[in-house]
Automatic annotation (TrEMBL):
Residues 280-368 form the Orn/DAP/Arg decarboxylase 2 C-terminal domain. Keywords: Decarboxylase, Lyase, Pyridoxal phosphate. It comes from Pseudobutyrivibrio ruminis. This is Diaminopimelate decarboxylase. The modification N6-(pyridoxal phosphate)lysine is found at residue 54. The active site is at residue 341. It comes from the Bacteria. GO terms for molecular function: diaminopimelate decarboxylase activity. Pfam families: Orn_Arg_deC_N, Orn_DAP_Arg_deC.
Length: 422
């Protein structure tokens, strides 16, 4: 059973001033989890978690993670500018972009952040765009083939657009060295949303072996290994959540067995988790406004894919709790839908739930990462508010809902919709 981090009574209090739909985040959960991540890797002196901004770019959330010692992983101009404005500086920012425009490389260089190059040809492109190299550079690695853990094939890096081949990455570090770069790192992101404690340890061992080989062949000793994202969460109630302490232990074991004997006991471990840092600490709160009985039973809610796209895009499972009916028998089968003119706009399909009355409030779980941030404005639907459930039990709005003026703001200079912009 999955329990919302917020009670029905609290939601009733919040909806007196902030109408549904909205995403709500759990400050206490975010902080406790961030502390657990840091404890799990405390054995590594240089450890740093670079929170993937794309997962949840709300500035109040980024500030909480900053207070907990996190840096940020950015992939665009806006993410860099936002992070810089919030006081993330230099080594607090990892720029792990791909297909990167020249002006973004220039901006990243201006800010002095760590640049993680996605491709061998970007070495030339970077040099032409920026004019020089920073003292520190990172490269993204793609081993190709399929990626297998003890519990089977996880994904197919050979099909993914990211990273460099082994030959390219070995060459890249030598080119960098010749061009005066002094410090190097490696980055690799091979599988998304892994619900196994084996992913990071396996990836770490592979990368450690690779950098030992690099050192033996070229004399280049890397100073950091970035395990990137991919640590998953238990979206389904029958899944066992990852144990970050065990994951940290597993990486430590690989470190001690591969890097330490090779005399590389000074390598810092970086991570770029998004989902694991925020996923469980967000929920979409929405009210049932329609019930429809045709060939199936439908419940229409006041949220739609604009507020949470994952089910529409990936068919992802998000658990649904009908607030106040946690213990009622789940003896009805519903599709829970939003209002977009797209049949994929369904938060749940053939879901067993308690009988839903109009006005019931639904809590859609695990929307803290890749939730609000993926939203768009299809059908002219405006994005909803974000709310923070504070540590002391209070709450505050941390982003207001969009208005029609926001939606039309890029038409302000054309005089065609001025009546709506007043
Ligand atoms: C999306 C992304 C992440 C975060 O991934 P999660 O699955 O949310 O952990 C980290 N690094 C890079 C480069 C990414 O693109």
């Amino acid at each position: 059973m999955k329990t919302p981090f917020v009670t029905k009574e609290k939601i009733q209090e919040i909806t007196k001033t902030i109408p549904t739909p909205f995403n709500i985040y759990d400050e206490k959960g975010i902080r406790e989890n961030a502390k657990a991540v840091h404890a799990a890797f405390s054995w590594n002196k240089g450890f740093k978690e670079y929170f993937a901004v794309k997962a949840n770019p709300n500035p109040f959330i980024l500030k909480i993670l900053q207070e907990e010692g996190c840096g940020v992983d950015c992939a665009s101009y806006v993410e860099l500018a936002l992070s810089n404005e919030l006081g993330f500086k230099g080594d607090d920012i990892m720029f792990s972009s791909n297909d990167t425009p020249a002006e973004e490389f220039r901006y990243a260089d201006e800010l002095g952040v760590i640049v993680n190059l996605d491709d061998f040809t970007h070495i030339d492109f970077f040099e032409k765009s920026v004019g020089h190299f920073p003292k520190k550079m990172s490269c993204r690695y793609n081993p190709g083939g399929v990626y297998e853990l003890s519990n089977g094939i996880m994904d197919n890096p050979g099909d993914s657009k990211y990273g460099m081949t082994k030959e390219q990455i070995f060459e890249a570090y030598q080119v960098f060295r010749d061009k005066g770069v002094e410090e190097f790192g490696i980055h690799s992101f091979l599988v998304s949303n892994t619900v196994t404690n084996d992913y990071y340890p396996t990836l770490a061992r592979d990368l450690f072996k690779l950098i030992v080989e690099l050192k033996e062949k070229t004399g280049i000793a890397l100073s950091f290994v970035n395990l990137s994202g991919g640590v998953g969460i238990a979206y389904r109630p029958d899944q066992t959540p990852n144990d970050i302490a065990k994951i940290g232990e597993g990486v430590k074991k690989a470190y001690e067995e591969v890097l330490v004997p090779a005399g590389m006991d000074n390598v810092s471990i970086f991570t770029e988790m998004g989902r694991f840092m925020m996923g469980p600490y967000g929920g979409l709160v929405t009210t049932a406004i329609h019930e429809k009985h045709i060939y199936k039973e439908y419940i229409g809610v006041d949220a739609c894919a604009v507020d949470l796209m994952r089910p529409a895009v990936y068919g992802s499972y998000h658990h649904v709790t009908v607030l106040g009916k946690e213990n009622a028998p789940a003896d009805h089968v519903y599709d829970v839908t939003g209002s977009l003119c797209e049949n994929c706009d369904k938060f749940a399909v053939d879901r067993q739930l308690p009988k839903i009355e109009m006005g019931d409030v639904l809590f859609i779980h695990d929307t803290g990462a890749h939730g609000y941030s993926m939203g768009y404005n299809y059908n002219g639907k405006l994005k909803s508010a974000e709310v923070l459930l504070q540590q002391d039990g209070g709450f505050k709005m941390i982003r207001r809902p969009e208005t029609i003026k926001d939606y039309l703001s890029t038409l302000d200079e054309f005089g065609i919709v001025d009546g709506l912009l007043k």
